[in-house]
Amino acid sequence: MSADTLPIRPFTQPVRVAFSVPGSKSITNRALILAAMCNQTLTLRGALFSRDTQILCEALKALGFSVDANAAQSTIALTGLGGKIPRASAEINVGNAGTAARFLTAFLTLHPAGTYTLDGDPAMRKRPMKGLMDALKTTGATFTFHGEPDCFPFTLHTKGWTHCTALEVDARASSQILSALLMVAGAQPHSVAVKLVGKTVSEPFVEMTLQMLTQFGATFTQPESGLTTFAGTSQLQLPSETYRIEPDATAASYFLSLPMVAGGKVILPEGEQITLQGDIDFLKPLAKTGLTVAKANGHILIEQTKESFEPVEYDFEAISDTFLTLAALSPLLSGPTRITGIGHTRHQETDRIRAMANELQKLGQMVVEEPDAIEIHPDLAELYARADASKHCGRLLCVDTYEDHRMAMSFAILGSYDLLQDGQPWLQIRDPKCCGKTFPSFFQHLEQLHSLPEMNIEFLLIAVDGGAASGKSSTSRGVAERLNLMHVDTGSHYRAITFECLKNGIAADAPEKVAAFLKTLSLDTQLVGRTASIVTGGHLPEPEALRSAEVNQHVSAFAALPCVRDAVKGYQRSQVAVAQENKYVGLIMEGRDIGSVIFPEASLKIYLQADEATRSKRREAEGQSDTIAQRDRIDSTRKTAPLQVAPNAVIIDNSTLSLQQVIDKIATLAIPLCKQA
Length: 677
Ligand code: DC
Fold this sequence. Notes:
Blueprint: E1 5-7, E2 15-18, H1 25-37, E3 41-45, H2 51-62, E4 67-70, E5 75-79, E6 89-93, H3 98-108, E7 115-119, H4 130-137, E8 142-145, E9 154-157, E10 166-169, H5 175-186, E11 192-196, H6 203-215, E12 220-224, E13 227-230, E14 242-244, H7 249-256, H8 258-262, E15 264-268, H9 283-288, E16 292-296, E17 299-303, E18 313-315, H10 323-329, E19 337-340, H11 352-362, E20 366-370, E21 373-377, H12 380-392, E22 397-399, H13 405-415, E23 427-430, H14 442-447, E24 460-466, H15 472-483, E25 486-489, H16 491-503, H17 511-520, E26 523-528, E27 531-536, H18 543-546, H19 549-559, H20 562-573, H21 575-581, E28 586-591, H22 594-598, E29 604-609, H23 612-621, H24 628-637, E30 650-653, H25 659-670
Parallel strand pairs: 2-15, 3-14, 6-7, 10-11, 18-19, 22-23, 24-28, 24-29, 25-28, 29-30
Antiparallel strand pairs: 1-23, 3-5, 4-5, 7-9, 8-9, 11-13, 12-13, 15-17, 16-17, 19-21, 20-21, 26-27
The chain binds 2'-deoxycytidine-5'-monophosphate (DC).
2'-deoxycytidine-5'-monophosphate binds near residues 494 and 593.
């Protein structure tokens, strides 16, 4: 099998899992541009880290902005300069990132005397820019083209926006053209009227831009259809120093569809808080297939409740990024799928209608391609026959992805269907890395939605991770109590080993001695209430001994040793059996690497966060002298099993929440995952 293809492992058990997805690309890139025009340092939380956002971050750095990106925490801190661009010249490559291409080109025209040279990938050189460039010429900007006219690469000479009070734009080819102009126009201190010539596509994205401008303090009126008049704002500004990026609704569409191929139920935590992204309306065509879509406690629940799935006819114009998700699953529907309103997607990452038609035809489906629509007549028997024939030749069916991340992710969900009913891959995806554009860890997320093979489906497994004093223990105990789960505190495992080593005069800087000692140390379990406590060398350690100042000081160094982690990993995984033997309905395990290393397949992964001041106060209240920040640094930078937000983990910041509120939040996610729910 060639290295650039990835076989997809089908789901052989129904899914029963809460999933989360990285931040929205569209919101992250808009927020970066808006933040750059503010006059403050803004931290974007839940930001997306992908090729498209990286390109924009790098470009802003090249222009002289201070950008501090922390991928492990999904934060980007950016210092805006009130509409000023530090460097008057730069060379920027926008790759194939449509948002970066359009937003940056408009943003650069803010400079009163700038000269910028921009280029993109071969595919980007063909994507529409003319409407944007023509509109920007109103500001006095001029373009010198180095290839085809009105396309990348080009050099842009800018004059600022001081004299621009009105402009017209033709954004029929892409709504990003209009969004780019609106953001820069909305940041002007004087009034600017933006008039749209004709209509644009993907209107929800324009709506997103306007809503975000409002959040950043811009005001506007829309006196007539297609006309947006900004009142002028002395300064774009947010009332807070942080801006929370919504999870990406388009990325969510893949996992929301999973019950169609695997059966069972998925939950998108706090999905109801997705309000800026039109793509959340993908739930509508999804419901038309017969999947049950429900909302409860702010979460979105999708469940397979029927054996077969209805044919769907739907206009995807407003949610066109999600049409591929449904199209790829069309072989599983009981009749033809008709998707209209998608003509503009022929000019996106690839000609998406063409690409989809090609690949579905290769899979034996009958496809009718129209200029702005696609109709698929499903033939599951033919798909089966082709997959079976390939299998007998020792091959898998293969989907080409055309450097289009959405092709890869959509077909990965189809491949998750156990077509041959043998649990073996039958479909592979060419160039899976193309997902890096918007969702680099997509396949890792997908893989982790499979449940543990040794675990029966009724058993509920919850992983809770977070830094020191983030509230893991009290939260986990509370959830265990509420849901009748067994509780395991893995911090105590490392503390017990540290205690035993120190007692025997063994220091963390002698790892070979630690390793030799651990070979002689037995690890067992004793239930104390519903907490499964570690028993080292036949002794249940005293809780006070495990929390002594000496143990606090050394535990992170011991926990960073690979031999220590190896010693506890099997022990921690064996706690599922302990919980099952003791008739608990599930297990909640807390630590630093539970969701990422010990149980990546947990039904529910929680990552608890609290600001440092809150955490220090908590430790003081417990009478603990503890160097939280220092421990966190060691825990999150070590090579083996560092503290990090696991794929799919639900981040809960509990700085301003009561313990009861956090327990409630987790319980409302966990209860629908219980088999009986
Ligand atoms: O949660 P705690 O403070 O009791 O954890 C003690 C130390 O153990 C902490 O500094 C990091 C380490 N630890 C770890 O590395 N992995 C875990 N799963 C749990 C704790």
